[in-house]
Design brief:
Length: 420
């Protein structure tokens, strides 16, 4: 029996399981136990980014925005249409991309674009003049999906052979930047600005920096996308500087708030450590170029993608999805993570990165080790997600330890003022 009322969370949990199987397959292929599987790397990345992340955001963002604004909840019929459209379209992508069926893949990408536009329309339509302290996160919630629409357009241009000033590789880079640093990065930043005070029982330590942080992230992401697409490297460089500055301000604000709350939990650790893995590629690539005078090798690019997916995206998902499902069921996030998972999900990306700087024989072993460590850390939260999806929250089998409060009471915590 299904225990969730949100169909997007159901699909996110199922794709989280399938993605874990894909990572296991990658470990077996790397160890030469399984033969090469066509499109496996693409599947592994997009099972997480579209199958899990996009589902979670589509499922939660309209409701969160409506609640912050005191507006009506989204029409259930719109939710059903969006869910059906995005999942049908994603199945088309899963079938067509490994098989090289670009026209069918373009149809699938278009379906996801329409579903995202419907969700964004629901968020914007419910928008009233928000209170001052709510504008920054709402700004990020709206800007993030806009970048996702741009990222999908970049994917369509690659599938259909549209030309661009930056050429094919410029489009690929712009596509990745729009989806990862634009869509996911902005929505996650808004979510953390809203949730970390509730998790720690403290207002944001530097609340006046939030508006500046949000604009730095948005403008920086625009440079990260437009620079490669237009083949204007100074624009890309400015985008990197602005985005990294905004990210640094975000990390400092969150870390100071967590420290003030004195409630250091595994899921909070996932959040901060995840951001370290997000900025690692922006540090290593220029450093490698300065030290060697050469562009990063394919091995470094592969490690950067693997580390970004496992170190940043996966840790953000694992820190948020189980709690979101628990809150939906009974208003309490309950178990707040595992220190074992924190260790494994950071040692794994470290091994994947190390594989880029050693000999070929050692690199294979380190890559397999990295995947095994990631899977080990993945297992506890994955099992919890599946249990919460398919178990009645009132049953004795799902009575976990209540480590996290559902949120601060109005009398305990002064609400932060986030500015304009």
């Amino acid at each position: 029996m299904l225990a969730t009322r949100n169909p997007f969370y159901l699909m996110a949990g199922l794709y989280l399981l399938v993605d874990a199987l894909a990572v296991a397959a990658m470990a077996l292929v790397t160890a030469d136990i399984l033969p090469s599987i066509a499109g496996l790397s693409w599947l592994r990345v997009h099972l997480l980014t579209i199958g899990v992340v996009t589902q979670v955001i589509l499922g939660m963002l309209p409701g969160i925005a409506a609640a912050k604004l005191g507006a009506k909840a989204p029409d259930p019929r719109l939710t059903q249409i969006t869910w059906l459209l995005v999942n049908t379209s994603f199945v088309l992508l899963l079938v067509s991309m490994p098989a090289g069926m670009t026209k069918l893949a373009a149809v699938g990408a278009t379906g996801i674009l329409v579903a995202t536009a419907l969700m964004l329309g629901a968020v914007i339509q419910s928008r009233t003049r928000p209170a001052t302290e709510r504008r920054a996160s709402l700004r990020l919630y709206i800007a993030g999906p806009i970048f996702f629409l741009v990222g999908i357009m970049m994917a369509l241009s690659m599938l259909l052979g549209w030309s661009s000033p930056g050429g094919y590789f410029g489009v690929i880079e712009a596509h990745v930047h729009a989806n990862v640093w634009g869509f996911l990065g902005l929505v996650v930043a808004g979510f953390l600005f809203d949730r970390i005070p509730a998790r720690t029982g403290q207002p944001l330590r530097y609340s006046r920096l939030v508006p500046v942080t949000s604009w730095l992230l948005i403008i920086g992401a625009a440079g990260l996308v437009a620079g490669p697409w237009l083949a204007i490297n100074p624009m890309l460089l400015v985008g990197i500087v602005l985005y990294m500055t905004g990210t640094g301000m975000l990390i400092v604000n969150l870390a100071a708030t967590m420290r003030a709350g004195k409630r250091w939990t595994p899921n909070l650790a996932h959040v901060l450590l995840a951001y370290i893995w997000m900025v690692v590629p922006a540090i290593i690539a220029p450093a490698y170029l300065l030290m060697t005078g050469k562009l990063p090798t394919n091995e470094i690019e592969t490690s950067a993608i693997a580390g970004l997916v496992a170190g940043w995206i996966l840790q953000i998902v694992i820190s948020a999805l189980p709690s979101r499902i628990g809150e939906e069921q009974d208003g309490a996030g309950r178990r707040d993570g595992w220190w074992f998972s924190v260790a494994m999900l950071n040692l794994g990306p470290l091994a994947l990165w190390a594989a880029a700087f050693v000999g070929e024989a050692t690199a294979g072993s380190l890559t397999v080790l990295g995947y095994v460590l990631i899977l080990a850390g993945w297992l506890p939260p994955l099992l919890l997600v599946l249990k919460r999806l398919f178990t009645d929250p009132g049953s004795p089998t799902d009575q976990g330890q209540h480590i996290t409060d559902p949120g601060p009471s109005p009398t305990r915590v002064r609400q932060p003022v986030l500015g304009r």
